[in-house]
Amino acid sequence: MSNNAAIVELSQTANKFRSSIVLQAENKYIDVKSILGLFTTLIGNHAYELHVHGPDAEEAKQELGAVFSKHGLNVKVVD
């Protein structure tokens, strides 16, 4: 599956939640709700960290974790 499909699905999923959802790739922090931010970041085979804070954080972590693994992206959800 292409990264474009992953980016659109991640952004759409993130936008369902009120929580702050930030992806850390090396020393960059990207708002997962921003398609443009994801386009410039989800390149190469980085290990990503997902930081989620807010009222629906647990649900957001589960759904986004599933989307990352579905697209074969290496992400660690940080508590």
TrEMBL record:
Which residue intervals define the domain HPr in the entry? 9-69
Check the record and name the SUPFAM superfamilies matching this protein.
HPr-like (SSF55594)
- What name is this protein filed under? HPr family phosphocarrier protein
Q: Which organism is it from?
A: Cohnella suwonensis
